[in-house]
Structures are given as structure tokens and as C-alpha cells.
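Sample pair:
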Amino acid sequence: MRLAKRVLPIIMAAVMAAGGISGCSQRAGNSETAAAGSQTETAISQAGASSEDTGEEKGAEASAEREITDMAGRKVTVPSEIDTVFSAGSVSAIYLYTLAPDKLLNWNYDLNAVEKSIILEKYQSLPNLGMGDAINYEAVIAAGPSIALNVGKINDKFISDCDKLSDSLGIPVVAADADLTASPEVYRFLGELLGMEDEAEELAIYAEKTLRDIDQMNVPEDKRVRVYFGNGEDSLETAPAGSAHGQALDMVKAVNVAQVETADGSRVQISPEQLLAWNPDVILVNGEPKADLSGASAAETLLNNPDYASLKAVQEKKVYGTPNAPFSWVDRPQGPNRIVGLRWLSGLLYPEYLNMDVDQEVKEFFRLFYHVELTDEQLQKVYNGTI
């Protein structure tokens, strides 16, 4: 209410009917006390109350915002109540979907059939608003999200990108860390940001337990498996050891045969001859999401390629497609989807050293993070890439 602008009508109302003014319960007592005096005193009292109301409203407006420190160390002023969040990239979208699907404004590309097989139907139709250089700024601004979330590798460029995105959209952009080991911290940070601390804590605890279980698997150095991880339609794009793309392999104590250096830690293209020279014990292939090529299909293609018949992994039938429902469990994107990938990889590579029931842990992950209860039959389809 803006009572300060209506003092004269209040005075007239007071003259006609002393004490006939209603308001919030806190001010009701003040009005009754004022009504016991003269009409002039009533008017003065109401004018004073209007001044107090104005002060209260200004205080409420100020409290409608709060300053936070995001995971990049940036001070960001955000609304106290956050209704919808623009996802600046696919990793951001997965974090938001797993924790707060009702606050997720958008996807960043059109979901494919595999993704839709797990994503709940009510969220499948969220708009594709793009990412990177292809963000639909007009559509985002028209939608009016409370904030944007950007998840990535924390460095100067990423911080600059967040600031530029905020300027372009005219809304706060909050940064979070994409490192897999930071996932429990990310969930707790988002829980506090979105007012969903209890829900976030459940996910953070699961992520922490996963990281701890994997770290505590006692795999002797001489028993560690040499692995090649392939991407793309020909499976010849690989994630170098020590890179963010190969982080899951490093964490499960696999020996990534791609011991190559890149300036920015990105994936690298290799030749068939290089793969033959590495001759890994196990081959994992991710397929190509953009071509709707699943990991399972990519594995079948490689197994049947005569050019690779001499590979140890081919001869021993140890070529596997990474599960990718609803998102790849190893890479692309580098989000919390990889948490379940750590469970699967550890069971695939080191069944004799397991300290967990992989099937039960995968089912629990899907319940907590993807909001679905998998049957045993569905679980096997997810593993096989046939769901």
C-alpha cells in the first residue's frame, strides 16, 4: 500500500467514521488507539502510519535481494526468491534438472529419443534456448528468468564469460564448478541458492559417498586396466589422460592409453594406426549424440571393423559402449551424469575389487537424480544402450 499518497482521503474517512480504517494486523492496534482520540489526532496518526508503511515497503524491497559469493568467487546480487533459472549450458541444465526441475527454464539443444526415455514427460517440452554463441538472447529475456546458471572450469576466461552473459541478458549470472570432485559442493551451493537445502543435501551425500567408495577401492598398480576412450562417429576422437574429458577414467584408477598433451586439455583426433599401436586392454566408446549414435552402436561397429581385428580388446570382446541414458556416463557433457559413470566403470573394470553393489547404486542414483525408479529389466536396457 502507498498510504502516504492518500492522506487526504484518510482524513476525510476519519472525520466520517473515526476508527473505521482497516490494515494489517500489526497496525490494527495502532488504529484503534488513534480512534479513541479526536478526529485530528486520528488523521495525524494515520499520516504517521503511512510514513511507517513506506519505510517498511522500502525495507521489504531491499530484502527482496541478497548478495552471494558464487563458486568462482564473484559477488552476485540475486533475488531472495528464485523462480526460474536460465541454463547457460548442458551441464547447468543437468544440475538444475536433478535438483530443481520445476525451476529449470530450458534445455540447450533438442532432446533426443534416448534422453526422452528417462527425462520426465512434463520437462521434455522445455524450450531449446541454445548455448555459447547460439544463445537465443531475445527468447531468454522475454522469458524473464530470475537468474542464469553457468557451470564450467573456473578460470579467468570463464569468469569473463559469466560477466559478459550477465550484461547481455540483464540478469545475474551465477557460476559453479564443473569439476567432478566438486559435485557435492555444487549441490550444496545450489541448495542454498535456490532454497532447497534438504533436497540438495541428499544428492550431495550420494555424490560424496560415490567419490569415497571409488577412492577406497584398493586396486594394485599391476592390476590396473589400460583403457582407450573413443568419441565420435568413428570413435577416433579421444580424451587425453589428465583432461577434464577423461576425468572419470582417471578417478576409477584406469590407465588411459591416450598419454598425450594438448594446449587446452580438449579431446584430440587420432589415427587408426595410433589406436593399433596403443593396443588397449579395454575400449570404451561414447558414440556421437549429435548423430543419434549410441555408445552400444559405436561398439558394435568397432568390433565388426576388420581394420581392428588384431586389437587385444577386440579379440577378447572387451569393447563396450558407454551408457548414455539420459546423458553419457563418462563425458559429453561433463556434469553430474558422470557420478553414476564412476559406479559403472568401477564394476566394469574391477569387479574383483568392488566395495559396493553397482546395480543397487545405479538404481539409487536414478531415483535421486533423475526422479525415476528403474526395474531390473530397465536397468539392463540402460546398461546395453537399448532403452
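Residues 190 and 196 are 8 Å apart (CA to CA).
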